[in-house]
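1st attempt posting a full record on here, be nice pls
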Amino acid sequence: MPWFVLIVSGLLESVWAVALSKSAGFTRLTPSLVFVVGLIGSMIGLGYALRTIPIGTGYAVWVGIGVAGTALAGMFFMGESANALRILSLLLVIAGVVGLKVFH
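the predicted structure (as tokens):
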């Protein structure tokens, strides 16, 4: 269960990061509220998961999922570049996250 919660928390990190960019400096209500809810949910889930998952592994996996999810959201929904080197770099991040989980 802690790994599932950690994965969801990492996805919520992507949610709050995208919402933060859409909030226009907290001047838009809906993205600002999504940011707050996503941030709180992400932190609560991370805290829960780190009760049993080692900090180095758990935090790195959480950040990696957030990085990958945010980068993918940027590429798919915000018009950011999706060139071969960016995708390769993203795959390396994902490989690192999987390695941390497998070899923890």
